[in-house]
Description:
- By secondary structure, the protein is an alpha/beta fold.
- The chain has 30 helices and 15 strands.
- Strands 3-4-5-6 form a 4-stranded mixed sheet. Strands 7-8-9 form a 3-stranded mixed sheet.
- Helix 22 links the parallel strand 7 and strand 8.
- The two termini are 53 Å apart.
Amino acid sequence: MNWLNLNDKFSRMLGRLKQLGQINRRAAHLNPRHYLVIVVTFGRWTLLGAVAGLLAGLAAAIFLVTLRWASGVHTGNPGLLFALPLAGMAIVWLYARLGGTAERGNNLLIEEVHVNRQPVPLQMIPLSFLAPVVTLLFGGSIASVGTAVQMGGALADWVARLVHLSKEERRILLMAGLSGGFGAVIGAPISGAVFGMEVQSVGRVRYEGLVPCLVASVVGFEIVSALGVYAKAYPLLPNTPLEPLMAVRVALAGIVFGLCSLLFIELTHLISQSFNRLAGARRWLKPALGGLSIIVLSLLLGTQEYLGLSEPLLAAVWRGAAVAPLAFLFKLIFTALTVGSGFKGGEITPLFIIGATLGYVMAPLLGVPPLLLAAVGFVAVFAGASNTPLASTLMGAELFGGAGVEYMLIGAVVSYIFSGHRSIYAAQRLDTPKFIFEAPRRFAVRDVMSRAPAVASPNTPLPAVLTLLKQRQVKSVIVLEQADNTAHAGRIVGIVTAGDLFRRGGLSLTDRPDGDPLKLSVSHTMTARDVMTPDPQCVEENASLDEAAHIMTRQRLKRLPVINRAGDLVGVVARSDILRCIAEQAHLRIETPHLTAIEPTDRAFVRGWMRTNVATVNPDDTFATVLERLVSDPLRRVVVVDDEQRVVGIIIDRDLLDWVSGMPDEAFQATVHRWLRGETGTEHDLLDEITAEDVMSPTVYTAFDDDRPIDVIQTMIQQRVKRLVVVDHDHHLKGMIDRHDMLRAVAEKG
């Protein structure tokens, strides 16, 4: 293949030139042979970037035309909205059958920039193209940018594999693909170049990708321009000199923009988690619920202007026409419902509209020109949600003509700071925290604990305890003498956790503590006193996190009641609270062990803390084998590996129950439930017909065995997982790490 031969020639030439052109660091002049290395490398990455930009530009152009067609069809046929739930179900079915890891979208691409673990599946290209078109056709609130970025990244990864780039070179070309897609679809090539280098980490711009990212973004932009696809015309802002008072007003607006970004992220996550709980194993139900919610809300509002691309809404802002004061909030809710319920498409353009409408309605209150603050909001809400303040500011300069760029930078930076360490991209890593200017401090338990614990009296019936766990969405109930379920006064006499319910409350693995208490297999005559762990270990609110971690690891506890000096209950601290603090404040000198130690010992890496006795099965092992390994494993999870011990999937007890509950064969469901209760002799034909591959999840959250503990803690917190499978750089299984292991790393010094 010509491309492969060309790449091999480049690589061999580069190797020879590097040998010939070693820099003499003592010399005061540039070695001509080394300069030749620079020229060859520059030419090679220019060519690769141009290829990535060409593919991204063509894909973006075709996608933009198709998306406008879908938007036009829906505008002419608003009744299509009533089929949105069915469209969502079809999308879920399509991804379940064909998607694999492609379902993770841009998060997969960003993760591969970091870990370079597995190829990006080619099916991401047609799926990411088709799904948002269907979503928009039937009225979902999505747009084009996120999809174009996905296609650009997936195409760049295909090129990297085609020409056999090294792992590090693949990372760089992936960034170029992200840049090409972003710059091409928005029409902002300079912003696109920076976006690919900035989006992968919070607080870091990867300049090693500068040349290919710039070339890819410019080429992608020129392709779309040459095809005459761009239709949006943004207004040119009038020249507005930088004035101190105006800068302060824009900074205040930036705070609101940042909080708006945070609201969108949290609401989307809340909707996703809520619909997940309601849908269970019936994944199709999640978008159905989202689609129905969108229909009901649009009927209540009596308008569909917040659905789809919402181009008339944005056009009204640029014309200076009247816009509803809560337009930004309605667009935010519709977009969060669309994305959170599993519809596929980009949330970036809706963020532009949310920011522009919010800035437009705030402008009179702050005394800022409406068009200026709308433009600032356009870039600032996106900057806060994506953690890309530089790319967002450059985008504003390109789209709005350069005037007012100082205010855009102020708004974007302030929004970026006040959105916190959250992102629309869960795979983003925290490189340089936003609060680096904070003074080093000693964190105490009171700084991280939950301050509203659920409480009950010893005589509270067990169904009421279960109801309390469900309603409060907590993992434990503190039992107080003479408690009234609201006041925290009284002596702590016990604690009820999910483990207590399983051990002494009659629950089995086939029951859910958060399910309907009336349907769970517990005695209605039992009380909190019957199942609680009496006289639980407590911790004082002024104790250090180090002390709390020591208590938890020594006694293998997941949470501790927190008391004040008088002995009154003031909160509950969990392992996750401590680990989250460490992950978010890793840049500060917290008085806990040095998790970022660089000594060449195993304790400095995950391999020094992981567990190596991991239950495994092969993809073709029977369902009976899976159940046998699952029941015998204390972690209640089985890793699926191939013949070379490479990780290909994972099976978790809760996911398995969800899968089984969707089977029409009630006898088979009963058989599995008996197995999980320890009755392993029960037989059923399907136990030998179904394989591990049929029930496994292909999405496995992993850590490398040479990762630092602090990196693993951050991954656990960002991905909201309790355990990670540990692999080497060839993806061979090495072990498993969980929160307890990481807490040991916190508690044990040296």
